[in-house]
């Protein structure tokens, strides 16, 4: 049997493989290498087995950071996903306003992370920031530098401002793909607004919603730049998320071994939670 | 259930219509009796879907009124009109089972569960989907999904009308027979007013008691399938109904005779003299190969199973005739004979009536 | 130019999409693939085009094995159900696009585009864009683009399915004319028996991935080799009745007529137009019940119940008959096919044998 398979096609994949090797696999292997060894500088390494992993897993400091991180991502998802859906549902479907709203929605997405951080850092300052100053003038005791709750609120509002657009735009794209006949049928079946959402819009959005949830989860779980710029992880350790802690450990303290072990665990946690989201959200689709 | 009246209805998609061309629907008045089966027939862009959307309330007419019974519903939203509609492409609620799909309109009405269950079972039996009731609607074939859409249209008993927007487009020919037969059975059983929009003459004629033929936003003729076939009011109807359509030839008509391509034909009735473009029209099945009559040039013979279509020309105009399956094509025939009783006379595309008495 | 399929089969994920098929498409022939949705028409076409590779068998073009050859090298043109044109180009540029890709000389492109446009009656629309055209004109543009290449093999996958009935009728009458002028091998997929008959040529009937018969269209229609082919190639569906043959005579109700098949049980099949309301010399009476009538203007469909079986009859003229009432219909045994218990044709309808 002459199987008409042309193996030359594999050469076309080669550049991508090389790129991925340099950008992901090799650094990852370096990290794996560090995570099982100890060093005292001068490029001298000692085998340490799973010691670093044990240390990281038992560290109260990292437990606390993980707790904060999970809480943060949960809050972000709980706000941005419903809010994004809500905005998408209320965006104009066609015409001039649709284009205008799309552009406005896309604007925050175009601003780099550190700039967003700086904007909010200034915006929230009690002395010169518009937000901080206004709140103070209104008699609200707001100070993100000293009050952990205010610090959290600032970072969450900032992230919502920065990234809800993404969720909204994805959902909007999903909604646009629904043929008019579905809405007409629902009106004829006398479905309520909730019925239309639950049985037409939500099912048709489920694909993009999965992407939105995964993207927002991964991004928020790895958040670094903005809290680093705004609060620097403080006050105290109130906004020290995993990535900030990791950088402190790796660069601030130069604990390369524990940092590497930490990185790997971090990576696995993200993978695990993403997998859980994926499985739960696609489970319904595969039912008979 | 209700009688449906379209009172001087017209619609334009542009806010300030100027010429004739701006009107998607030109002024029309029609009455459809309660419990009738009607079809709107025409090619795409003829305004039939616009008219359907006005009846269902998805569109508000620029002019005129829509009445269900004696009630003016022109300004009522779709949900308040109590109608059902089946669309061209199957619309099913993906995440629901077949049963939940069928029950959905009843649930929205807040009917008791027992009543819903009984009704859903009855409809499932009619559309032949009892076996698949608990399957999820996603992943069924297009045929099955369209059956669900039909079933959902049928499930409410008190609807004023059921509207069908080219519902058999995605269905295989064999299945079309089954679904159409089911539709007719359902119509007999429940007596709903049904309005069926299609571009397919076979579907329109076989489904409806009365067919409304539309062209360029205008109702050209409304009548029984038989009258559309035998006495089309306009050359468009002659062309649109029947396959192939009616043959049309320029003629000079005087009394009981018509002169076509230098040949004189006898007509069954006498006609008064008319000004304008005069044509005679005849169905391809009312023409026979002959040794004398109109000169005809045969171009192609097509075997269509139970009959044959002979395509050719009379005086440069295309002209077709239809022969039964068991009748041989006479060798080298070059004339055709027309049945005088079935010749119609058209002036500027509109059919004219003969004089009462042969002159 | 000949296209030959030898034992071509396609399996996807352990599922058989196409059972081994042998087809020889003669030079300059019109070939129709007739079958319901999902019967394998499109899959077979994709195999012919080289868009997919068969899991078994070989494809020969002019006697040369082209299995596994790239589509681009095959000289194939394809037209789909959706009207696929470049929306931003004019009709002229759309038609010219395949020639530009082949780097044909400018003067020759112009000549060929104009000639093809003339044949497709698109000359007045050459400067317009596809979206300004009607559906029929858009599909004619797509057809012109397929034809202008001068490809030896033109594949048409239900090209008229998205068009209005009347337009479809007109293009159906035009396609044989265009086809005769081009000299290419045409393959035309359709679900409609009437379309197959109108286009003529050869027909391959497909059912669940199997080519059940291939031959000249009228012959496949009148002499189907099995009940499945007869069913695929009948619209309205063929009527069937289980009958018994005893002592060289077929028995149906009280009627009997001589048949030249061994005794046993058979399925008698006959098409709708062959049931009549008037008695003819050789016809036998059958008592059925009238379930519904459908009037097409020129003809009337009778939906009949005969015991457990549903039949459809087609009679000329407008008949208003009481539904639900018993009705005697007549059937000339010359129009009856007999299929054995395995569904194979045991006895062709005598009228078809004579033809």
Automatic annotation (TrEMBL), chain A:
The keyword Transport applies. The chain crosses the membrane at residues 12-36, 70-89, 95-116, 151-175, 196-218, 259-280. SUPFAM superfamilies: MetI-like. Residues 66-277 form the ABC transmembrane type-1 domain. CDD domains: TM_PBP2 (cd06261). One of its GO terms (cellular component) is plasma membrane. One of its GO terms (biological process) is transmembrane transport. Keywords: Membrane, Transmembrane, Transmembrane helix, Transport. Its main location: membrane. InterPro entries: MetI-like, MetI-like_sf, Sugar_ABC_transporter. It is a multi-pass membrane protein. It is found in: Cell membrane. Belongs to the binding-protein-dependent transport system permease family. This is Carbohydrate ABC transporter membrane protein 1, CUT1 family.
From TrEMBL, chain B:
SMART domains: AAA. It holds the Pfam family ABC_tran. GO terms for cellular component: ATP-binding cassette (ABC) transporter complex, substrate-binding subunit-containing. Keywords: ATP-binding, Cell membrane, Membrane, Nucleotide-binding, Transport. The keyword Secreted does not apply. GO terms for molecular function: ABC-type ferric iron transporter activity; ATP binding; ATP hydrolysis activity. The keyword ATP-binding applies. InterPro entries: AAA+_ATPase (IPR003593), ABC_transporter-like_ATP-bd (IPR003439), ABC_transpr_FbpC (IPR015853), ABC_transpr_MalK/UgpC-like (IPR047641), Mo/tungstate-bd_C_term_dom (IPR008995), OB_MalK-like (IPR040582), P-loop_NTPase (IPR027417). Residues 4-241 form the ABC transporter domain. Belongs to the ABC transporter superfamily. This is Carbohydrate ABC transporter ATP-binding protein, CUT1 family. It comes from Paracoccus chinensis.
TrEMBL record, chain C:
InterPro entries: AAA+_ATPase, ABC_transporter-like_ATP-bd, ABC_transpr_FbpC, ABC_transpr_MalK/UgpC-like, Mo/tungstate-bd_C_term_dom, NA-bd_OB-fold, P-loop_NTPase. GO terms for molecular function: ABC-type ferric iron transporter activity; ATP binding; ATP hydrolysis activity. It comes from the Bacteria. The keyword Membrane applies. GO terms for cellular component: ATP-binding cassette (ABC) transporter complex, substrate-binding subunit-containing. Keywords: ATP-binding, Cell membrane, Membrane, Nucleotide-binding, Transport. Gene3D superfamilies: 2.40.50.100, Nucleic acid-binding proteins (2.40.50.140), P-loop containing nucleotide triphosphate hydrolases (3.40.50.300). SUPFAM superfamilies: MOP-like, P-loop containing nucleoside triphosphate hydrolases. Residues 3-233 form the ABC transporter domain. Pfam families: ABC_tran. Belongs to the ABC transporter superfamily. This is Carbohydrate ABC transporter ATP-binding protein, CUT1 family.
């Amino acid at each position: 049997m002459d199987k008409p398979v042309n193996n030359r096609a594999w050469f076309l994949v080669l550049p991508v493989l090389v790129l991925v090797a340099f950008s992901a696999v090799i650094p990852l292997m370096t990290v794996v290498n560090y995570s099982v060894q100890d060093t005292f500088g001068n490029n001298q390494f000692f085998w340490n087995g799973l010691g670093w992993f044990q240390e990281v897993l038992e560290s109260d400091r990292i437990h606390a950071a993980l707790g904060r991180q999970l809480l943060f991502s949960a809050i972000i998802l709980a706000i941005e996903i419903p809010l994004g859906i809500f905005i998408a549902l209320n965006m104009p479907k066609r015409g001039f306003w649709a284009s205008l709203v799309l552009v406005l929605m896309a604007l925050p997405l175009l601003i780099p992370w550190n700039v967003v951080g700086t904007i909010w850092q200034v915006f929230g300052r009690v002395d010169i920031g518009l937000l901080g100053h206004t709140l103070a003038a209104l008699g609200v005791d707001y100070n993100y530098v000293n009050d952990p709750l205010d610090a959290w609120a600032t970072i969450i509002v900032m992230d919502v401002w920065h990234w809800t657009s993404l969720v909204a735009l994805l959902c909007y794209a999903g909604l646009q793909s629904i043929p008019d006949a579905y809405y007409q049928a629902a009106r004829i079946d006398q479905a309520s607004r909730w019925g239309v959402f639950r049985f037409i819009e939500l099912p048709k959005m489920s694909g993009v919603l999965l992407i939105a949830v995964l993207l927002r989860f991964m991004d928020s779980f790895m958040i670094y730049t903005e809290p680093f710029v705004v609060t620097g992880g403080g006050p105290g350790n109130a906004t020290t998320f995993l990535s900030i802690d990791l950088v402190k450990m790796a660069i601030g303290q130069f604990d390369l071994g524990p940092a590497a072990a930490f990185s790997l665990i971090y990576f696995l946690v993200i993978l695990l939670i993403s997998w859980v989201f994926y499985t739960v959200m696609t489970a319904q689709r595969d039912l008979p | 259930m209700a009688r449906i009246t379209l009172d001087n209805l017209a619609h334009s998609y542009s806010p300030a219509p100027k010429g004739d061309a701006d009107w998607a629907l030109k002024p029309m008045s029609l009455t459809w009796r309660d419990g009738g089966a009607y079809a709107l027939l025409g090619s795409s862009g003829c305004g039939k879907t616009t008219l359907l959307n006005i009846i269902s309330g998805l569109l508000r007419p620029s002019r005129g009124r829509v009445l269900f019974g004696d009630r003016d519903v022109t300004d009522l939203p779709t949900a308040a009109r109590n109608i059902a509609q089946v669309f061209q492409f199957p619309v099913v609620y993906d995440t629901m089972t077949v049963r939940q799909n069928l029950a959905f309109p009843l649930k929205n009405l807040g009917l008791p569960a027992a009543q819903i269950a009984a009704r859903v079972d009855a409809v499932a039996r009619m559309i032949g989907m009892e076996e698949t009731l608990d399957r999820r609607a996603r992943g069924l074939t297009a045929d099955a999904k369209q059956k669900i859409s039909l079933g959902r249209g049928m499930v409410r008993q008190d609807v004023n009308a059921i509207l069908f927007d080219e519902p058999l487009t995605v269905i295989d020919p064999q299945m079309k027979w089954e679904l159409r037969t089911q539709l007719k059975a359902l119509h007999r059983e429940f007596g709903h007013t049904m309005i069926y929009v299609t571009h397919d003459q076979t579907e329109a004629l076989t489904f409806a008691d009365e067919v409304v033929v539309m062209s360029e936003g205008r109702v050209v003729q409304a009548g029984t399938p038989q009258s559309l076939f035998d006495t089309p009011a306009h050359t468009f109807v002659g062309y649109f109904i029947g396959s192939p359509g009616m043959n049309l030839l320029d003629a000079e008509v005087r009394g009981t005779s018509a002169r076509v391509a230098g040949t004189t034909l006898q007509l069954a009735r006498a006609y008064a003299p008319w000004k304008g473009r005069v044509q005679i029209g005849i169905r391809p099945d009312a023409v026979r190969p002959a040794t004398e009559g109109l000169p005809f040039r045969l171009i192609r013979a097509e075997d269509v199973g139970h009959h044959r279509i002979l395509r050719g020309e009379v005086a440069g105009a295309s002209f077709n005739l239809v022969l039964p399956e068991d009748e041989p094509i006479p060798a080298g025939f070059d004339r055709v004979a027309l049945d005088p009783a079935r010749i119609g006379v058209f002036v500027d595309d509109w059919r004219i009536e003969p004089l009462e008495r042969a002159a | 130019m000949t296209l030959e399929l030898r034992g071509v089969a396609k399996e996807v994920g352990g599922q058989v999409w196409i059972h081994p098929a042998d087809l020889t498409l003669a030079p300059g022939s019109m070939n129709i693939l007739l079958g319901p949705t999902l019967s394998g028409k499109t899959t077979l076409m994709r195999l012919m085009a080289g868009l997919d590779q068969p899991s078994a068998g070989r494809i020969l073009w002019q006697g040369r094995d082209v299995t596994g050859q790239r589509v681009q090298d095959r000289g194939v043109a394809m037209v789909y159900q959706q009207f696929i044109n470049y929306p931003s180009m004019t009709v002229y540029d759309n038609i010219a696009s395949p020639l530009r890709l082949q780097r044909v000389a400018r003067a020759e492109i112009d000549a060929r585009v104009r000639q093809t446009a003339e044949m497709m009656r698109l000359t007045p629309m050459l400067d317009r864009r596809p979206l300004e055209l009607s559906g029929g004109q858009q599909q004619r543009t797509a057809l012109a683009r397929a034809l202008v290449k001068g490809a030896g093999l033109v594949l048409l996958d239900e090209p008229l399915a998205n068009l209005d009935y009347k337009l479809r009728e007109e293009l159906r009458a035009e396609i044989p004319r265009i086809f005769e002028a081009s000299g290419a091998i045409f393959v035309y997929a359709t679900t409609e028996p009437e379309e197959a008959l109108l286009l003529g040529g050869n027909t391959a009937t497909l059912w669940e991935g199997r080519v059940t018969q291939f031959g000249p269209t009228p012959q496949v229609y009148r002499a189907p080799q099995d009940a499945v082919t007869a069913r695929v190639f009948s619209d309205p569906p063929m009527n069937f009745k289980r009958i018994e043959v005893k002592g060289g005579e077929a028995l149906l109700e009280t009627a009997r007529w001589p048949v030249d098949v061994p005794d046993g049980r058979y399925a008698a099949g006959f098409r709708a137009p062959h049931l009549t309301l008037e008695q003819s010399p050789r016809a036998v009476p059958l008592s059925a019940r009238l379930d519904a009538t459908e009037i097409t203007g020129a003809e009337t469909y009778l939906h009949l119940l005969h015991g457990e079986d549903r039949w459809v009859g087609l009679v000329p003229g407008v008949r208003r008959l009481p539904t639900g009432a018993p009705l005697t219909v007549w059937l000339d045994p010359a129009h009856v096919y007999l299929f054995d218990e395995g569904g194979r044709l045991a006895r062709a309808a005598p009228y078809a044998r004579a033809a």
